[in-house]
Amino acid sequence: MKFALLPCAALFASHVFASVSPATDKLADYAVTHYQNAQIHTLGNMVSFPTVNKKDIDTPQNPDFIGFKSLLKMKASELGFDYQDFGHTVLIGMGEQQEKVTIVTHGDVQPADPTKWQQSPFLLDKTSEPGKLIGRGTEDDKGAIATALYAMKTLKDNNVKLNNRIELMVYLAEESDWEPLKRFMKSYHQPKYAVTIDASYPVVVAEKGWSLIAPTFTGSSPKTGVYVSELNGGAFVSQIPEDASIVLHNADETTLTKVKQNIDSLKDVHVTLTPQGDTFLINVKGESAHSSEPEAGHNAIAHLAEIFKGIDLENNSDGQAIEFINQLIGLDLYGAQFGEIAYRHDFMGPMTVAPTLLKRSENGLKLSVNLRRPVGKTEALLKSQIDTALNNWQANNNVTLNNVEIHIGTPMLLDDAPHAEALLDIFKHFTGDNDASFVSIGGGTNAKLFDNAVSFGPSMPGKKYTGHSEHEYLFGPSMPGKKYTGHSEHEYLTPEQMALNLKMYTAMMVKLGNM
Prior knowledge:
The protein is of the alpha+beta class and 515 residues long. The protein folds into two domains: 10-208 and 412-512, CATH 3.40.630.10; 210-407, 2-Layer Sandwich (Alpha-Beta Plaits). It is built from eleven helices and 27 strands. A hairpin with a 2-residue loop joins strand 19 and strand 20.
């Protein structure tokens, strides 16, 4: 995730908020003293449910989600909150005030490859790497849910008077399908203030739009020359792929020499070239990352294609995909080779372009290319430029793409959120970072469905975000310079970060609950 800093005055009118009061400081300390262990225990319970959505079963009928919701209902009752189940969405609330503050989270997680974890990804692993709480969903988003529950409990314990109801929203298909939430929002009364806790600190006021270009290759050839087959790579669309492989056929000495030269020129990935009879299996091991920040990883699919630069492959579906990647994407991250689609915004940064998933079916070989687009170019213009680039590539390569899926997402840039300065003040107070300002992220959260939602954590800036990874975690504020690793293969949280989040979320609820 690329963090772009924005001076406060650039987007928001000047507001003066009182610093965090001594009473709120005491509440924050109370929260950690009384509920640090409880929130970690609750996180472990949540992680134990593999809440990965499946295409063949609707979320409300999925046993894993039924179990997860039962846990949420039990915790709500135990902590003294009301609970409402709307199928794909759960609301856990405190107070009966007419106005409300909605804290937006999600309980579904991305898939996890158990072979890449030292213990089960659906077990909170406290021992493999001491000081880390490892497990799928720890950072994205179950850790934040646990923290929010105990921040609410802290206010309830201390009879904190609030002008606004606090309502924790847990959506269960954020990673796969926003349509049920869009339908729900048509009848959901917009809150006075909304905050997503599914992104990063200090305060997120801009999000790029999740977009997709997904051509399907169906070419065939006599396979008498040099050709490739069994092209494979990636785990899901929103992850920079860690693994990719291909089988090379009919390679003469000249071809093999070129392949080896190309392999030797690659950096940051590990490549193996294994003879298998008269063929060669090529495997590339990169580093996974959240696809909103492709620079945080090393794309195995893009590097695999690079191995065939300068080699004339036959025009079967696998060869077409390799040529498509090399000619239109390459190792560039920003669409510079993809016709005229590249652009950037002064605050939100550049659009990013990453090949993330290869999937074979009876219809052919589908390549998913994940884009994250800022404001600054209209959807119509970008669509036209994508179409032009695709048409030119087909003409130049004598290829017909019978099916190309294109989705262009809408970016978000808020120019006024009445609670943004208050949250920034809280972040500065608890971290001591007085230079903190507003940020833009490459990822997209459910904040886009609310009138004035900003994001507040749980990932610290300048650290490797690990949500969607196979090793999900957060470092504390004293661990600068780590990469954001959401959607990567390494997801975890630290107890120190959970404690800091608990303090800040407690202060957030006190502040917004009385604004």
